[in-house]
Write a structure and sequence with these properties.
heterodimer; A: about 475 residues; alpha+beta; UbiD C-terminal domain-like; nine-stranded antiparallel beta sheet; five-stranded mixed beta sheet; 14 helices; 25 strands; about 30% helix; globular; B: about 80 residues; 1 helix; 3 strands; FMN (chain A); BsdC (chain A)
Amino acid sequence: MAYKDFRDFLATLEKEGQLLTIHDEVKPEPDIAAATKAMSKLGSETPAMLFDNIYGYTNAKVAMNVMGSWPNHALMMGLPKNTPLKDQFFEFARRYDQFPVPVQREETAPFHEVEITENINLFEILPLFRLNQGDGGFYIDKACVISRDLDDPDHFGKQNVGIYRMQVKGKDCLGIQPVPQHDIAIHLRQAEERGENLPVVIALGNEPAITTAAATPLLYDQSEYEMAGAIQGEPYRIVKAKDSNLDIPWGAEVVLEGELLAGVREFEGPFGEFTGHYSGGRSMPVIKINRVYHRKNPIFEHLYIGMPWTETDYMVGINTSVPLYQQLKEAFPNEIEAVNAMYTHGLVAIISTKRRYGGFAKAVGMRALTTPHGLGYCKLVIVVDEDVDPFNLPQVMWALSTKMHPKHDAVIIPDLSVLALDPGSEPSGITHKMILDATTPVAPETRGHYSQPLDSPLNVDKWEQRLRELLQ
Amino acid sequence: MHTCPRCESKEATVVSKSPVEGAWEVYMCPVCIFTWRSIEPETITNPEKYNRAFKVNPADIPLAENVPALPAKYIK
């Protein structure tokens, strides 16, 4: 079911009624970001947007909110657009288990149509614009950034494809935020210790499988391209860069080849982040662009990021939950039911699990804190029984309301690591974390009065099915 | 040269002009790297109306934290 390229996915969105084309003239600021933010406020089933009449441009097209809803996420996986969220989670988990799917190599790609190596001006090649009022400039924040491990350059899995925020800081310069937990920061560290620049490729406007894989917290030596193949159910197509041994998504609209400059830090930001707060201004590495390719009349895909929920939250919801789920299942294969780590990239996570004995649920919560993603997130872990759907927040609230005893079930662990962007961390990057055990106590934990859980009248399931049919 | 609305240096230059002639220009400040378009609201383009909470003092720029930290050999 793989989408050939970005345009193929947009065509499917249009066919499914999930793409709204805005032909009316819009100003680059504030209209495009404002319209996208407004779209996010209209619910969780909104369409992508394509702007094709932007003031001052003759031929620019900007695509927004491309994966900004659950129907669009379902279509990313080739599922019916009305697939329930929990079903999307289990289908994603099933495909995640198919990893790795070997890649398919190509010699040429559509983005080779136009190539620029002199007088590069990113402001003229891309219809750039401001997202939030306090942003320090114009950003690129949904592109795949590709780099390799310099100490093990032939290890395909250690090649990294990640999504990092990049400020356009000159006609051929970008600032990039590689925080120390990111894989690209390992590559940069290797390069800087050698005193060499780090080759990078930036691919904009990709079909959604690689975007999803690039935003998934994989292990360091796991290939995002081989995960994209698992997600789309067939080999992912890549093509070699010209200036390095990096591999590029075949279907990209625009590709920038360049190098991260060793030993350089330059003022960057602020930028409105997924935490719903601006990051402050900091000094960050700089990328010099040496070569640009693009399709004729490229579509610029961009992502509005701001106060949740926005497209980011849909993009990193299920693909954050599934690795946590799989890693917890490695420890507790017969107990873990499902994981919902969709809140602010998993700063809050909800785990549904069976319990073998008293205290078990707290151990599950502790394990979540020590997963790779948990080291930077999982500030609050809520553990619920196996019959509570962690994606159904009213059910989770019921469990907290009735199963949790604050004296016994609220556990605080002091001074653990968290991502530095967490505005509550103090110092930045350090926070207490909490586990709320909202499971039913089991022996030898016999407190409370839980022996008579409410059942339902007979035949509720039959009636539910019948009513669904009547209501169709 | 144009005045940067954020740090008020006088050194900002044009980095891009609209493909449709005369619609807008984009400026960039070489001091604080602020970038703006001529037709943005005054709260972005006018130094006196720019949000004070987001103003940058050029003297603070060298003090900004390095992310990620620089290896020792690059620290002067």
